[in-house]
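Hallway conversation turned thread

IA: we were arguing at lunch whether anyone had actually written out SAM-dependent methyltransferase TRM5/TYW2-type domain-containing protein end to end. Turns out nobody had. So, for the record, here is the sequence (277 residues) and right after it the structure tokens. Reply here if something looks off.
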Amino acid sequence: MQLKKTLHRRFPDLDPARLPGGFDRVGDIAVIGIPPEAAAHEREIGEILLEMHPTIRVVARRDGQYGGEFRTRPLRILAGEQRLTTTHRENGVTLHLDLARVYFSVRSAHERARIAALVQPGERVAVLCSGVGPFPLIIGRHSHAAEVIGIEKNPVAHQYAVRNLTANRTKATVRFLEGDAALVLPGLQRRFDRMLIVLPHGGEALLPCALDALKADGSLHFYDMGAKDGHAATMAKVETVCRQHNRCPRPRRVVTCGHCGPATFRFCLDAVIDATV
């Protein structure tokens, strides 16, 4: 709210309700949404944000929705240095990334810690669509998993994941593989105790290969987005594919783990997948 108050003092003719009140911070980059009513002052707003937060070096505006095969989001620099690469730290790990070329949600930091706390000693964990590696690296640091494998199709994100693996001096139990998870996972010829499908949209397409590689009574974490009351829809997606593969999800709990706008929420289905229906 401090940002909104400062902007209102600077632009008293603008409706305070139409001024940005917050931003996402990724490393030393502030990512902010600018309402249309304030667009004429966007560069001034960027400079004000730099003044308020001396450790921020770049202010970028969200310039569209996530899209494309790798779910990147268009950003436009308003103030500061002309770059979208940064180094972000969360949950005890360091992540190098390029916001223009990879998908990364700073709002999922708590969720990543939550999942890491669920991993039991000796588990083998697979993370599908692992991006620059936050889930595998945090699980590797905060659990005693026997193996953590991240699979990512975006070659730029995979390169950053490999760099982050080195930067964090993570246990040898963590490794990253590049490629389409639907093709890479079967080639591993092993079964996992815990499976994460982190794709923000369309993750149900990976459920068949995930179920084939998940042990009987293994744990599944399936991510989805939808309306506030969308728990049932998320659960239905998983139940449908499980039935087709003669598997049964239980206890079928859906956790709300963030939001991507006033009407779009992020869900995670936590389930143990029985061997047969």
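OS: looked through it. The helical segments are 2-10, 42-52, 109-118, 134-142, 155-167, 181-187, 207-213, 231-244.
IA: good, adding that to the notes. The mean pLDDT is 93.
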